[in-house]
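Thread: Newbie trying to understand structure tokens

Hi all, I'm a second-year student working on a class project, and my supervisor (Dr. K.) asked me to get a predicted structure for one chain before our next meeting. I've only ever worked with sequences, so writing a 3D structure as a token string is new to me. If someone could post the tokens and maybe explain what I'm looking at, I'd be very grateful. Here's the chain:
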Amino acid sequence: MTTRRMPPATGHVHNRRGRSLNSRVIQLSAFALSFILIALLVVTSSRAAFVAQNDNIANTVTSASIDLTDNDNAGAMFNVSGLMPGVNEIRCITVTYTGTVNPTAVRLYRSAVPSNDLAPYLNLTIESGAPIGTAFSGCSGFTPTNLEYSGTLDGFATSRTGYGDAPALTAWDPTVTGEARTFRFTVNVQDVPAAEGKTTTFGFQWETRTS
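---
Reply by user tm_fold:
Sure, no problem. This is what the structure looks like when written as tokens:
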């Protein structure tokens, strides 16, 4: 009878334990890799959560204003009929600069071409001076300091058509808001037959600019 010898049981147990240990090492390695990936994801996510901000104060920009006003209350200086030669019609108007910056010089020119046919025979004198408190269109207390124009209405309208005309009629050069000038206008009709029975309509304009 042949006796069959079985291999020692300890060798089998040793091999199983060896494989079990290897399996555990592999599992632990996989777990470690998983932990590392999770850690990287957490770090990446944390970095993305940081936001750079700059709290800037609100900025404000205001444009300059430049304006001229007068005391005519939308009324005409002259509304005369039956003007006779040798009779002067005198009116005053006060113009004030109300802007916020130092502007260019204020200039005076016609606002429109005189209509009808009296303009060549209507004498016009324009003077300027310190502002007066008299209501429009009175001239009480006015003292002229500059002669701005002396000629005919037609001559004024022909040569003073806009701000850039030469010779420019520079009324005054304000530097601060509230500066004012009073202008005295005197008209009379020439004593010539050609002026008889004629009419004209006209207007004046003051202008200043920023540059």
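A couple of things are worth pointing out once you decode it. Strands lie at 68-70, 89-97, 106-110, 115-116, 122-129, 144-152, 170-172, 180-189, 200-201, 204-207. The chain has two domains: 11-41, 68-207. Feel free to ask follow-ups in this thread.
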